[in-house]
Automatic annotation (TrEMBL), chain A:
Keywords: ATP-binding, Cell membrane, Hydrolase, Membrane, Nucleotide-binding, Translocase, Transport. This is Energy-coupling factor transporter ATP-binding protein EcfA1. It comes from the Bacteria. It comes from Limosilactobacillus mucosae (Lactobacillus mucosae). Its EC number is 3.6.3.-. SMART domains: AAA. InterPro entries: AAA+_ATPase, ABC_transporter-like_ATP-bd, ABC_transporter-like_CS, ABC_transpr_CbiO/EcfA_su, ECF_ABC_transporter_ATP-bd, EcfA_1, P-loop_NTPase.
TrEMBL record, chain B:
CDD domains: EcfT. It is a multi-pass membrane protein. The chain crosses the membrane at residues 31-62, 74-96, 108-130, 150-169, 248-267. It comes from Limosilactobacillus mucosae (Lactobacillus mucosae). It is found in: Membrane. One of its GO terms (cellular component) is plasma membrane. This is Cobalt ABC transporter ATP-binding protein. Keywords: ATP-binding, Membrane, Nucleotide-binding, Transmembrane, Transmembrane helix.
UniProtKB/TrEMBL annotation, chain C:
It holds the Pfam family ABC_tran. It is found in: Cell membrane. This is Energy-coupling factor transporter ATP-binding protein EcfA2. Forms a stable energy-coupling factor (ECF) transporter complex composed of 2 membrane-embedded substrate-binding proteins (S component), 2 ATP-binding proteins (A component) and 2 transmembrane proteins (T component). Its main location: membrane. It comes from the Bacteria. Its EC number is 7.-.-.-. It comes from Limosilactobacillus mucosae (Lactobacillus mucosae). The gene is ecfA2. The lineage of its organism: Bacteria, Bacillati, Bacillota, Bacilli, Lactobacillales.
Amino acid sequence: MIDIQHLSFKYPDRTQAALNDVTLQLPMKKWTAVIGHNGSGKSTLARLIDGLLIPSSGTIKIDELLVDEKNLQQLRQQIGLVFQNPDNQFVGTTVADDVAFGLENHQIPHGQMQARIDESLKAVGMQDFADSEPAMLSGGQKQRVALAGILAIGPRVIILDEATSMLDPKGRHDLLKLLKKLIAERDMTVISITHDPVELSLSDYTVVLDHGKVAMQGETTTLLQDPAKLADLHLALPFAQQLQLLLKKRGINVPAQYLDSERMVEWLCQQLNS
Amino acid sequence: MGNAKVILGAYVPGSSWLHHLDPRVKLFSCFWYVVIVFLASNWLGYLWLFIVLGTLIALSRLPLKLYWRGIKPLFWIILFTVAIQLLFSSGGHVYWQWGWLAITSGGFYQSAIILARFILIITISTVLTATTPTLQLAAAMEAFMKPLRYLHVPVNQIAVMLMIILRFIPTIMDETTKVMNAQKSRGVNFDEGSLIERARRLEPLLIPLFVGSFKRAEELATAMEARGYDPDAPRTKYRVLHWHRNDTLAMIGLTLATIILLATRLMSAGMLF
Amino acid sequence: MSAIEFLNVDYIYQADTPMAAWAIKDFSLKLETGSFTAIVGHTGSGKSTLMAMLDGLLVPTHGQLRVGEVVIDNRADKKALARLRQGVGYVFQFPESQLFAETVLKDVMFGPLNLGVSPAQAKEQALTALEALKLPSDINERSPFELSGGQMRRVAIAGVLAMHPSVLILDEPTAGLDPQASTDLLDLVDELHQKGTTILMITHQMEQAARFADHVLVMNHGQKAAFMTPHELFSNAALLNEAGIMPPASVAFAQQLQSHGLRLADSVPLTIEKLADQLTIRLKQGGRANG
């Protein structure tokens, strides 16, 4: 469990706190989505969990590991962070060199490097691009390389900070599919900061931040049963939830348990094919 | 959108004996060759240098046209310098004189030496850059800089910076094209007007590039930190340069070439004949 | 006379070298004044190259292109290209990267001033554009670099609109924006369309094409694969498959219903609202609707 207690953070050049007394428990080995409007504190939370920022007050513990300066090396090994801009996190002159960058930082012995690079590139489907230069890759491919670089270190937690927002629909779809697969195969914990309703609908657990405070949290399926509340917080909803709200406005009540497109189709067929 | 290796220097992909040599050997040999160029003291010495150069060009299996392209941009400078030597040096038989200017046999001799040196030095550099990808050159330079660590020069950090520069050059070139197009769309004409006008028109190009680069640097630094980069901590290395038998042979060849060159100096002093 | 006309246009990169590559092949198209055309297709299909020619940034290798009265072919001189750019506005992807001036107002005035408009007139055009993009007036004297990402984008777009283009090209205008900002921006673009600007929008999001466009141009490997209304396009499963395009979610949903035996009056509902409307009608007729 990721245990966050009374976490507060204020950027030095702002008057308002980015995060205000946030207390949360995030499940391990599950996919948690953190959503909220721009400025709600989502990215700040991601960076605090990774130890890139120091909280004004409060603590974060990843299972028993306390997030503080003394544990930075362990934290960097256990947590991988994929950022929003695919270009501005790609360091190497080729794909293989970029994956190697992380290995070099963690002082992995030279003899182990090639095997780890090959294995992690294969896991993300980029093994044929090992010698490619970043200028020849699409945004989605670069994000997959970033993921490979993280996997090569063997972390327990992957945090995605709006990692799909600059990608086209296909790139986004491929990356999300890959993440789902990795969680299943490797028992990874994924925290994804996002606006994307599809990403939201893939998660197991959701936290909604609003102006630096927790507005809602819980199992994603439970939260999606109350789309009106999410809409009030100006959040983008998955297709099925949008349709539910529109039908409600037109006087049709869809029972709460028909949460995704497939089940709505079933319900509609029940209603109309009788 | 372009291969950084080919755009930057004059690297031409190939699989010749020279292409496969360790870049440290090539970098050192190039440097050493330039040194011994200045040790040649007679026509025999220069002949030997041209023979060595010719052999290297043949070994590179690259067309002569390529090497001419290395000299072409500097053609006028060379011509100018040669002309200066021709017209202002003195010594020996005078063929023609007009005030300060004079064409003498001494002049011919001096200008021939200058011309030879230009050609030799430029061409050996081209041999180096044509057969060695920029990244390998950077690795070789890093290897030579290692002793500077004892002078507290941050060699490891410089190496990482070099890699990042190389990686971002194509990206920044693309960005430049993009900003230029955006400003052209807003009515900027980059190729017209006086020098001063054109310089001012660079503002809508340079400022976005600068600002973009700062933002990029900040994000990149954060990402590097998240990936465990610590500039002061020791790091292992993925790309390691390996010394092979051919590299030893090359160094032997270099030594022999130097010995023969030194021998030509002795010949002019009349010691071997 | 139609606003835009392409006549057998080819574009070949590095045409006289051994590395020549076709980017656009034998492209012909007519677009009416005030139309809204969405341009879709895989990466590398030629969408950006086509728009670059439309804005006078590239010149056709063969063929002819006309925008209003300006005709461009491979012999076009700089003056003709400049005249072309006067009437065409191009909002590039992530346009905020072009901001450079000391203040927001100065940046938005830059375009009109370059067109030769007087400073007073340029200021007025700039203020109007900033207002149209719903930007608060207190940012006018601030540095554009102090603004949030979404605001910077709107300032960049204002900079293009201030030039009063009759043709507006947009390349993925909502890329990287959050959903609310996306909706606001597209509504604005639609407003411009209603007021008579000819709009061309490159997008990967079929929902956008379905909702706003009169016609969709599908590009495939440098050639025109299709030019038809959204309704025609999204009913054509074979074409969508070949071009590698997924229909908008509302259409996909209707198709799912259809595969379960449930046909709607309009089997290709272009927006989720239209889908909801049809379902409501059917449910209220169908008896068991709980209202």
